[in-house]
Input
Amino acid sequence: MTMKINLTKVILIGFITGICNGIFGSGGGTVLVPCMVMFLGVKENRAHATAISVILPLSIISVLFYFYKNMIDWGLTLKVALGSSIGGYIGARILNKFSDRTLRIIFGISMIIASVRMVFW
Output
């Protein structure tokens, strides 16, 4: 599926996503998915899958910085990576079983819970 997309929009969305990832450790889901859906017209399922693909190079760049600053707890990283890998596999397998609307609702509820947690905890 080829789409004609405004390159300036794509680069700006990528830039903002990268800044959010570097500062907050997130951005692929919280910034990239909604931007791809709203501003680029990408279907919800494809936006989620694309965001996951973008997160890898984003994370590599960020982890290099954090590595050089000696900010990584490697023991914790390995334990969380194990659970995350299993969860990521399961999530990728079931992604296409949800409609765009259901994904949007699940994603929205997740963002609301995350924002409330960040404000009050």
